[in-house]
Amino acid sequence: MLIIGIAGGTGSGKTTVVHQIMNELPQAEVGIISQDSYYRENNHLSFEERALINFDHPRAIDFELLGKHLKELKSGQTIHQPVYSFVTHNRTGDTVVTHPRKVMIVEGILILANPELRELFDIKIYVHADSDERLIRRLKRDIAERGRDMEEVLNRYQNTLKPMHEQFIEPTKAFADIIIPNDKYNTVAIDVVRAVINQRIK
Within a 10 A sphere around the Cβ of 25, how many other Cβ atoms? Predict the structure, then answer.
């Protein structure tokens, strides 16, 4: 099994890159795991306390479970991915059954920040985008999909997202094998990644 890690700041376009890579690959042979599914369970906290969690700090992620699941997939076992709700800031109790594939793509802002997890990736990719561009995308997404208002998103960006990005996410670019600029010129980088994947799965 080939495991690919795709990191990058919030709103950098990781999901777009994942889809671009997958478009050319046989669907049955590629699976996706999102870091967002692996936010820690917070049953012991009230909703108000959960809303204050810093979700952009590595502490918020259950890296142990994510690493365990990747190892199980690699050894041919089926896993049950947790389901996380950004509305309640907690796991829902549901799971998604995920079968081993020839290629597993793991995407998330902090996946290259954890040394044990990095060891499991055969290819490490960082998607780079301008900070203004990322903020605009984050605003649009959080207002449309997560029920936030503009002031809340901007406050969180200023007080949490930006400092966490500079402290924990941007430095992980140094661990990437490939840095993909998230703009119209990224086609060469995408083609290189696809070529490597195709070579590995044949």
Answer: 16
Find the radius of gyration of the CA atoms of the chain. 17
CB within 8 Å of 4: residues ≥ 6 apart: 21, 103, 104, 105, 106, 121, 122, 123, 124, 125, 193, 197
User: 3-state DSSP call for residue 174?
Assistant: helix
- What are the angstrom distances between the C-alpha of 133 and each of 13, 129, 130? 10, 7, 5
Q: Are 79 and 56 in contact (CB under 8 A)?
A: no
Listed residue (17, 13, 55) closest to 36, CA to CA: 55
Please check the confidence at residue 146 and state whether its pLDDT lies above 80.
Answer: no
pLDDT band (50, 70, 90) for residue 22: confident
The DSSP line for 15-82 is HHHHHHHHHTS-GGGEEEEEGGGGBPP-TTS-HHHHHT--TTSGGGB-HHHHHHHHHHHHTT--EEEE
In terms of Cβ atoms closer than 10 Å to its own Cβ (0-12, 13-18, 19+), residue 74 is: middle
- With cut-offs at 50, 70 and 90, classify the pLDDT of residue 184: low
pLDDT one-digit tens code per residue, 81-111: 999 998 889 999 999 999 999 999 999 999 9
